[in-house]
Amino acid sequence: MSRDARWKALLELLVERGRLDVEEAATQLEVSAATIRRDFDQLAEQQMLVRTRGGAVVHGVSYELPLRYKTARHASEKQRIAKAVADLIAPGEAVGLTGGTTTTEVARALAVRPDLASGTPALTVVTNALNIANELAVRPQFKIVVTGGVARPQSYELIGPLADGVLGQITLDVAVLGVVAFDATHGAAAHDEAEAAINRLLCERAARVIVAADSSKLGQRAFARICAAESVGTLVTDVAAGPEAIGRFEEAGIEVIAV
């Protein structure tokens, strides 16, 4: 197993369990304890975990994995959600996409839709996510608008006043919002306040807002609020959400699509 694959596996385990012992990790990944200790030390230097005696814990209550280490989590759910979200977008619309793993899958689903294979443009996509812009820029039928701003390495999102300036000048048909938490009472939220501010502005510029979130994000709260629940028209999630959780969002006036 390569170092990058091992680090990804370690970080996935750590997020899942909250705490990881050296011996436990070594057994799980079938490598030596010395290798795991070295990995923990190097990841701690990058502030991606906190070293403890005999192991490691996640990096505080606002811990957030960089996007490249989150792509495998709930992958099949995210792909189903992405296709359902893409089906809600009409040809010719102006679409805002925030950063995140689920919205990245939405961009990929839009890119392969047969009815969006041509047009002038087939879609206008406004995003503050560098990875999404990179994937869609090769599609000549899509008009890609990037907000500008300062890149946030955890999510590849552009943040700050430069992004504010672009978003203040445009109007969107729909904003597709990726979140780390969505609660029927407390609304949609992110870990980072600057990221939340850009996402909020995208929502404010859109005629309708779609939250794309797997069931693990529902009923959760995070540090920085993006928007109130009533600002969201549609939630697309997976069937693991359950009737009780779905019911709370429906009572708040949100259409819920579970796939």
Overall pLDDT level: 90
Order of strands in the sheet with most strands: 6-5-4-9-12-14-15
Helical residue percent?
25-40%
Distance between the termini: 34 Å
Major sheet size, sense and barrel closure: 7 strands, parallel
Q: How many separate helices?
A: 9
Show unreliable segments. none
Q: How many DSSP E strands?
A: 15
Shape: globular
Sequence of secondary-structure elements: HEHHEEHEHEHEEEHEEEHEEEHE
- Structural class, by secondary structure, is alpha/beta
Rg from Cα: 19 Å
Beta fraction: 15-25%
Quick summary:
This protein is an alpha/beta fold and 259 residues long. 37% of the residues lie in helices and 24% in strands.
Reconstruct the topology from this structure.
Layout: H1 3-17, E1 19-21, H2 22-29, H3 33-45, E2 50-52, E3 55-57, H4 75-86, E4 94-97, H5 101-111, E5 123-127, H6 130-136, E6 142-146, E7 150-152, E8 157-159, H7 161-167, E9 172-178, E10 181-183, E11 187-190, H8 193-204, E12 206-212, E13 224-227, E14 234-237, H9 242-251, E15 255-258
